[in-house]
Structure prediction request, 855 residues.
Amino acid sequence: MTLLSVRNLSAFYGDFQALFGVSLDAAEGETVAVIGANGAGKTTFLRALAGALPAPRDAVEFAGQPVGGWPAHALVDLGIVLVPEGRKIFPSLSVRENLEIGAYRRRAGPWTLERVYGLFPVLSERREQPGTNLSGGEQQMLAIGRGLMANPRLLLVDEISLGLAPAVVKHLYEVLAGVHREGTTLLVVEQDISQVLSVAQRVYCFRKGSVALEGVPRHLTREQISAAYFGA
Amino acid sequence: MAWVDTVLQGVLLGGLYALFATGLSLIFGVMRLVNLAHGDFSILAAFLAVVAVQTLGLNPLIGLVLVVPIMAALGWWLQRLVLNRLLGRGILPAVLVTFGLSIVIQNGLLETFSADSRRLNPGGIETASLALGGGLAIGVFPLLTFAVAVLLLLGLHVVIGRSVIGRAFRAASDDGATAALMGIDRDRLYALAMALSLGIVAIAGIFLGIRTTFAFSSGPDRLLFAFEAVIIGGLGSLWGTLVGGVILGVAQTIGARLSPGWGVLTGHLVFLAILVVRPAGLFTKSRRVG
Amino acid sequence: MSVEATVRIARITAASRAGVGIAVLVVAALSAVPWLGDAGTMRAIIEFLALLVLAQMWNLLAGYAGLVSIGQQAYIGLGGYALIVLADDAGVNPFFAVPLAGLVAAALALPTAALVFRFRDAYFAVGTWAVAEVYRLLVANTDALGRGTGRTLKAVFPLARETRELVTYAIALTVGVAALVAVYLYLRSRRGLGLMAIRDSEPASASLGVDVLRTKLAVYMVAAFGTGTTGALLYLNLLRISPDAAFSINWTAYTIFIVVIGGLGTLEGPIVGTLVFFLLRQLLADYGAWYMILLGTLAVVAMMRYPQGLWGLVAERWDLQFFPVQRRVQRGG
Prediction:
């Protein structure tokens, strides 16, 4: 069943157009990867889905309902949750409070504080420390944990590998694979394609604000991906 | 001994200034908004208390129970209908709109209540004093004001530090856009912050009106003192506003003792001096609420 | 098939030529008033010109330099008192003392800036107000300046009333025209371009080599000079000064309303705004405080829904610029 259906989405920052008629589908329970170079519009796309940017009402359909342009808090109620680029941990909140604020809308679901601590023990150890006292990798765990606390139906993940060591990134993707196994739908944006292609059922490649390629990872060649990524 | 008395009075005056400053600090922390009509709202509250006293025969301290919720509601709707639309447009619209509101309120009060000075009479408590020994005495009402300020700050400290809504305030103050992504409805959160701000400043206005005379034009000075207390204490620190208020109060009372016309001026000069030496204020935490 | 289009960067358009023409006519008409009109009209025009210059100065600060000051009344007061001190105490010709008073105000703007430039945004605004209050209280506590009651300008007493009024009017006209021309030329200059770049983006303009601090300071001092000169002019006209009147926040209220209602960030806006201001004052003269309530409400509404002001609405609708400071791209030879 299609959970997310994006049709012809364009997005602007003032006069500057960042997305040009993007269309994308994600079935419930699927992990979809969105790859592309810097500035391709991937983050803009996720932000538009999450309600941080305006979007036309009919451009985004979620579980059959047109939700384009809805405010972010209403989308979280539906289960659309963003793990933002750059982690965006709240410095005035402790690790625990950062997680708790993820559950602000109190959506029902399997994720609790204890469960997140189980997933990321280091967060439990540092629970009363300010969120930004953690290392980059730990903050990324915190950001993912915070997203999970909202009990998402569709988890939007923006560039978690940025600035992290490969071993840490591997661990994070194992966590995402686990979240996928629970049935959560994932839309994962990445510049580093090797990790994300191993967990995704389908991939979209963005270039300059449009979809340049779409397919199943194991059916696509390196050349095809490279051509779509950089432009032939 | 007379100097100790002066300093003591200044400290208690600081409690009143903290009441004025707290609301200003709160809304700046949460939404980076400076409400130039802040002082005028406190005077509006004082005049509402005058109406309550005149029409219902209430003691002004009882009148608080009516006026504070009215002012809080006013703050809620002001934020939702007017000020929320100005966010994200830079500071100029907010400065100019609140400045315009300040002028409208002042002139509205002038039209409605004339230019006469008023005072609220709570029936004697404002003249009562407490002997401290050694010839020292302090006013009961200033002491009460100080106590209310401390209690209020304590209350806010607890709410902001431990409650869900407090967490939301802190998150919004850190990063409003990400707070929205957490599901926080900023429209309503900001309205709540403004409601709190005006509710607190209503208390400040009524306490002011009991302590001294006031008129339609008394608002701007209150804003200035509140602003100075916030800056001296450091932006973003709630307890800092108490310290800032106390420093300002003491500066003013000492100045007034040196020469009658110099009270307020001394406060301004101390404020500017602190600004030169420590522009960030005494207790600044980077842009945090509480 | 090749398409050729010549493109010009131009500032002068038909509208701007018309603008210059209208301006010349208006100035000529105003110059004729002393012979055609009466003293009352002259006083009204003096006041109009004074408010116009104040509005232009505030517009320069807020609309172009991004410095939202609500303390410009400090320089009105300083200019007014400097006039009295220079003319009565120092024996300077009171008419020459007007621009000198402006220089005094500009000089005091330097240490003032050293303080208030430590603030940003809304706190800068309140900081300027606090400083204005300090000036007011210092003056009100100084015996030589007449304390709370103020002083009267005595140096003009020997003159015949008509002569004084005529010269004051001439000075007002000169100040008004000079201020407008100066602002116009400045904004068209390279420095003016730098200023508008700062308004649009400080970091970007800094990275392009615009000295942000120096430019802002220069603009702040120039505005102080203009405001101070206008303050001196106002009190040359009124003859009687007191701290509460000269340092009153009402001056700022009037200029803000004029600029917001007329149109921030344009040269034509303050002109339109001042006209509206005077018109409203005439219409509502009998209604006391309602006049200010209406002005305040209009300003709030303007800021919320029509931030471009009355002139902005007109200019957008008909793409007009009488006093263009923008460069336009024009097609064709």
